Amino acid sequence: MVSVTFQSFKTNAVHWVSFHDSQHAGESIVRNQPLRDKDCIGMNGRNAMIWMMPEKILSPAALTAALDARRARSERVVFTNGCFDLLHVGHIRYLQRARTLGDCLVVGLNSDDSVRGIKPNGRPIVPQSERAEVLAALACVDYVSIFADLDPHHLIELIRPDVLVKGGDWPIDQIIGRDVVEARGGRVLTLPLVPGVSTTTLVERIKKLP
Question: How far apart are CA 1 and CA 20, in angstroms?
Fold first, then answer.
């Protein structure tokens, strides 16, 4: 199990992030920066984000090429995956924390067919294209890639992340892709969940509304 300590983020500030796992312990610097002026030429902030989002939702092949370019700049790639149906505060905090563990956060998103294979009837509530768009709108997410398999093992083999992250409800030895990441000298970590917050809980609360 991994213990990670985080601070509240302020715009354009430097933060120390402490971490500990079975292989490493120490601190790293994370800089939280706003969208630069040169990224928004001729656009207001909202339009700039809409313009940037298609570049963040990539096929596995396009994602591999984008990550190769980042690795050429010695950037560390963090990967996580999930359905992210009805995005909630637990998702947001988890993704923000995952982003601090490297230079680039990739989210593997279960396709609609994949979700139907692992979740109860009626899921997903939100279709894959909209789930991808919502994730891509988050500043902490660098790339989103949709996968059709029931698990992300093949995608992890393709993109070769330096850090693999899952929620604290996953035992380390059961995390899909652990073999791939650790064979390359990478790290596999879990992050704590927000108690009592989940898509299933939200769905049940909605069903009970008068």
Answer: 9
Q: How far apart are CA 43 and CA 54, in angstroms?
A: 16
CB 193 within 8 A of CB 89: no
CATH class of 44-207: alpha beta
Q: What is the pTM of this model?
A: 0.73
Helices (H) and strands (E) counted in the chain, each on its own, are 8, 8
Tokens 């905090």: give the residue. 93
Q: What pLDDT score does 198 carry? A: 78
> Domain spans of the chain?
44-207
User: Residues 6 or more apart from 132 whose CB is under 8 A from it?
Assistant: 57, 109, 144, 146
Q: Partners of 104 in the beta sheet?
A: 77
Answer for the pair 85, 124: CB distance below 8 angstroms, yes or no: yes
Average pLDDT of the chain is 79
